[in-house]
Amino acid sequence: MAVVLDINGLKNGERPRHPEKAHRPDSAAPKKPDWIRVKAPVSPGYFATQKIMRENGLITVCEEAGCPNIGECWEKKHATFMIMGDTCTRACAFCNVKTGLPGALDVNEPEHVGEATAKLGLAHIVVTSVDRDDLADGGAAHFAATIRAIRAHCPQTTIEVLTPDFLRKEGALEIVVAAKPDVFNHNLETVPSHYLTVRPGARYFHSLRLLQQVKELDPTMFTKSGIMVGLGEERNEVLALMDDLRSANVDFLTIGQYLQPTRKHHEVVRFVPPDEFNAYETIACSKGFLMVSSSPLTRSSHHAGEDFARLKAARASFK
Rounded to two decimals, what is the model's pTM? Predict the structure, then answer.
């Protein structure tokens, strides 16, 4: 797949955009309500974490995706590592990660992630990636190598992976599951009716089937998925999505507010109030999820370590 980047007129430090986004009309950017506001990251812990990332030449989704929780997480030395580069082969309408033709994989990256995990003293780590449709296995072997490197440096650290969908990459999922991460996360992102406009390069039922296959390959592995709300979805669509995830035996559901990175991205149709997030959490728990995290600022990796401990306790309570 060839991707042409429109770089004319870019200012210093500005990200190259996929043509789809570069020429998209500006969408509305409504003012954020009070419950969305977060403090700017200025703590010593934040800068210490940033220093370790820079020294090891690592990329984090916290920075690339503009996560609102970066100040809180980095202060605690929690970070989500983004492997396989900073350039994605897809152009999802919600995502702030750069799109284009990625470079070659860094064969030393798994080792660097393992070293950084040790320096940060992480008890739980989250590893995600850009989509790499250009690779024969979608980057599955690189995920597996990263898991092994973390285990070698930090045998007690629990590992959560947040993977792409490995669309049309036969055998890729098996490679990642065989490496034995503790949690396998793949986000559905939105309801099926919005895939063409929000996540056009993906297929809803393929993503759902991916999560189901993880349980078929390893019934003991925790599975997790997340969605954004505020994209124009209907309440009954969110509830139907919950049922789909439970039919795939997914253990953990996260629901957070979609926040528009720029006016070239999908508009925020609505800021969902906190009481509706609470209602979603109550309903999801009644449907049988072991864990549910639902709030305006919930993100897939937010409080991942604490949530993993709660997830294990929830499973143990059912035995």
Answer: 0.86
